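[step 3/7] inverse_fold.run input=structure_tokens len=267
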């Protein structure tokens, strides 16, 4: 194709980021038929307009960057009552027969740990510090902690040590979190979390995605997996029904948790 003008190229770059959340410098150079230096100049210009943020090897949209950069404490206060209902449903309906579960790092999945039925004879695997803390007070639950490099923003561990440990494990049910979900798959805010999530998915018999409706139709920097990796989705019933089409088309069951009884004061 004919080389685009710089303004047209930057406009198209923004549209690509709106769809995917993240692009590498190399793939943008190939897409537009220009050098990576030219792409870096475009990114610098757009950063000056506060529409994108450069990261190592690529660029993210400002909305995706904000999803990945918000720390755990801030995210945990968002729709707290909704997340608690989702976690309670997950813990009530999806405990596996073999009793081995993995709980992903995240604010909603973290509440699964505090929603486990009393007296549950479970073995919990996690790389999340909040989950570790919650499970440590339950003497009847066996706990395996996945070590690695600690990340303060997500209060979780990741890295080669983490994924190597997961490769030797078998999980009945994984309670998976996400920063975004759309017809291209499941997304999270950074590469290090994505790597751990992929390893946990590979180790699990059943993958249950637990996330609130604000994550649907959105994206984030790192793609974790295709929708086909999911076996069940739990979301509140405020989700736009049109956003469930991709899941329904793949035969993935969805549990819609009613939230109309939650008062505004409790959120």
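[step 3/7] decode complete -> sequence:
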């Amino acid at each position: 194709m004919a080389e685009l003008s710089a303004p047209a190229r930057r406009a198209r770059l923004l549209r690509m980021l709106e769809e995917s959340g993240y692009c590498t410098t190399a793939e943008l150079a190939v897409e537009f038929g220009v050098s990576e230096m030219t792409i870096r100049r475009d990114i610098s210009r757009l950063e000056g307009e506060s529409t994108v943020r450069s990261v190592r090897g690529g660029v993210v949209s400002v909305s995706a960057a904000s999803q990945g950069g918000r720390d755990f404490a801030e995210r945990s206060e968002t729709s707290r009552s909704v997340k608690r209902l989702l976690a309670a449903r997950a813990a009530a309906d999806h405990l596996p027969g073999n009793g081995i579960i993995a709980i992903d790092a995240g604010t909603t999945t973290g509440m699964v740990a505090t929603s486990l039925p009393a007296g549950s004879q479970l073995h919990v695997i996690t790389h999340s510090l909040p989950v570790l803390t919650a499970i440590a007070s339950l003497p009847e639950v066996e706990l395996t902690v996945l070590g690695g490099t600690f990340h303060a923003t997500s209060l979780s561990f990741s890295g080669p040590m983490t994924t190597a440990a997961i490769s030797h494990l078998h999980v009945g049910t994984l309670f998976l979190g996400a920063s975004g979900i759309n017809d291209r798959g499941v997304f999270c805010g950074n590469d290090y979390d994505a790597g751990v999530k992929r390893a946990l998915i590979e180790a699990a018999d059943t993958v249950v995605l637990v996330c609130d409706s604000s994550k649907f139709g959105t994206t984030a920097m790192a793609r974790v997996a295709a929708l086909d990796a999911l076996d069940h989705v739990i979301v509140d019933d405020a989700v736009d029904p049109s956003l469930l089409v991709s899941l329904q088309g793949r035969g993935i069951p969805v549990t819609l948790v009613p939230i109309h009884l939650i008062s505004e004061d409790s959120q």
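[step 4/7] annotate
Residues 64 and 220 are 5 Å apart (CA to CA).
The chain has a mean pLDDT of 86.
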